[in-house]
Specification:
heterodimer, A: alpha/beta, two-stranded antiparallel sheet, 6 helices, 27% helix, B: alpha+beta, Alpha-Beta Plaits, Uridine Diphospho-n-acetylenolpyruvylglucosamine Reductase, domain 2, Uridine Diphospho-n-acetylenolpyruvylglucosamine Reductase, domain 3, seven-stranded antiparallel sheet, five-stranded antiparallel sheet, 23 helices, globular
Chain lengths: 251, 574
Amino acid sequence: MKILVAVKRVVDYAVKIRLKPDKSGVETSNVKMSMNPFCEIALEEALRIKESGRASEVVAVSVGQAQCTDTLRTGLAMGADRAIHVEYPGTLYPLSVAKIFKALVDAERPALLLLGKQAIDDDCNQTGQMIAGLLKWPQATFASKVVLDEGNKVATVDREVDGGLETLSLDLPAVITTDLRLNQPRYATLPNIMKAKSKVIKKLTPLDLNVEIRSDLEVVQVTEPPKRQAGVILSSVDQLIDRLKNESRVI
Amino acid sequence: MKYLTAASRLLRHSSRNLSDHRSNLQFFCSIRPSSSGLSYTSLRSYEHLIQDDCFHRKITLKNICFRGSGVGILHCLPKFQSDGIRTHHRNLASTALIPERNKSFATINSDDISYFKKVLGGRGVVQDEEKLDDANTDWMRKYKGSSKLMLQPRKTQEVSQILDYCNSRCLAVVPQGGNTGLVGGSIPVYDEVIINIGSMNNVLSFDKVSGILVCEAGCILENLMSFLDNEGYIMPLDLGAKGSCQIGGNVSTNAGGLRLLRYGSLHGSVLGLEVVLANGTVLDMLGTLRKDNTGYDLKHLFIGSEGSLGIVTKVSILTPPMLSSVNLAFLACEDYLSCQKILVEAKTKLGEILSAFEFLDINAMDLVLKHLDGLRDPLPSSKHNFYVLIETTGSMESHDKEKLEAFLVQAIESGLLTDGVVAQDINQASSFWRIREGVPEALLKEGATYKYDLSLPPEKMYNLVEEMRQRLGTAANVVAYGHLGDGNLHLNISTQQYDDNILAKIEPFVYEWTSKQRGSISAEHGIGLMKASKLHYSNSAETVQVMAAIKKVLDPNGILNPYKVLPTPALSQT
């Protein structure tokens, strides 16, 4: 069974982000970038499935500018067998990415597609769901536990939902997006980093996949949230009531 | 020495009560000297005895650091006449010879309190017992003073007025910052007035072009790091205590830390200081110039003098720009020789991007994994004898990563490394650093620690650890870690409880061994109280004499941080 894992290169989770002076977006030049944490979890899950003997190959895929290969190298160092880089230098929105993945899945025919539940730069939480819709595949999102049956025909997935945990049973092939508590990703060890150098990263363009990138969305402006106002100490209850009534109009 | 054992046995039994400081203070209130009842002088001499012995006791009992006495001791200890230094009941040459309280120092009275209240306002004068309790105890909970007063000035002018007054009254003082020191230098020995600089915590200016930061001495290091982070700069030093330590204290102790390998010591990065001398004179040496050869560069006297020559009130420091590419590798080696070879290789192959080189041995690793939550072994596949942490900092990610990986590949192929991991994001890097920075905390949780901080020639460093293990056998756990890149070993001997027998096997052996290698008995922790009598192991007699002469010039009454840094006999000779 082949598993395809989507990974995204994002601003490192621990970095304090700043806006570009023209408010067109977040400053990404000269800032540490790394693999999206949820994508790491997805890749880790794929590797564990492979180590348990259920899968024969794990393929890491990334869509974006040239430096995405760094993220793919990390994926290969963690243990993926090969990688695919769909190069596109411009801005990408979830629907475009989903269309690219549909074309890739049609070509590669994996039995399982794993993604992180959302990317920490845009927090869209859309790509996995859209791919499943385009492929007409079953989907289980926010997975906190994934169990495959003996024949690799059915996946039983626990999902973290607002009310608690929901268990779904999906026929493969399926799309699963991963949540935080699914696993703890492994570190990239030196022997694996060395092996990764000889692994293949195939380069494609959206054109090769017959996908046209266009979007109905346009980012007009990005601003910081308003600065938190200092609290005010009032001197009496009457003053408090007056403020609540007249200023914040709560009562 | 039967009475010693009896006293220690008694204190050990009552250890549970004594560990709650608040209950202690109430319990032992009645034994404090008071004007009514017992004659002041007789009780004072007893108190000296008890304080001295209790001090000695301090390092033999885990978590017991109560000064003043236990009732048990009063019964067990025979009376004896006071003399200059308590030595005759110490058969262990090693235990710190704590000088008795200097008779020329006055004690605080109500006039003093009113004066301080006038200068500092009510808020700046602290006599609350709980707060004083904290301020009187060091981070290791090994030493405790009995100060009754803490002052919190907010301006240099206030510091100047306080010191002028204390000097004229001959009141001893202890400058205090974050109180994270490891040699008992930041807390009173007796009833010295604590001058806590923590309220002077403003950043005064920052030049974005030159990276020169001017701030008050009470700024917490981590806050300065956050401030500079926004500006695209970093502090030239980094240490585990960054959340509490203050820059004034860092400067006064010439703190080293994790980045010394790359950015050098504070003697290089501090460009200027504002210091208040013992008599209240304010020395404005707060230059912001990179080069200034005009006369004697006095600031270097104060950097590392541990508050004994003056109180630092403002600091001007050169900060390096923040570079975007930081890589961290956590590596495993079979033996110490490989660690050294890797250091040489790292210096040559990584060259200008190398920013930290730390090591820890397997005992340190085991302790950290045992006591700290949320940490996992980066190399769980097998047990390794030595772990090395290498950090590189540069401006080009691809260039640095390539260099680091080439270096690591070669190290593995030549057998210097047995395994390793490279952090793939900042989160992973922080967890690796947490392992190295968490060793002191893990040691604290494990039990009693005898802590030594030595500078030794790198080839000889681990020999000391192995010899110590042979000497102690199964009696204690010898843990080693440190800044291998700087030749700085942190040797820690961990036991369940403090024990004189174990101490006897450690000291003076460890100091003599170090002295023979012409090493330093205190690489970065400083002298404080703990090593004041050991200065001669790393300094010639003439050198110490000149130090004492300088102290006499700048602080004739000796009120600044007494009993610390310089040995008392040296001071009384001048």
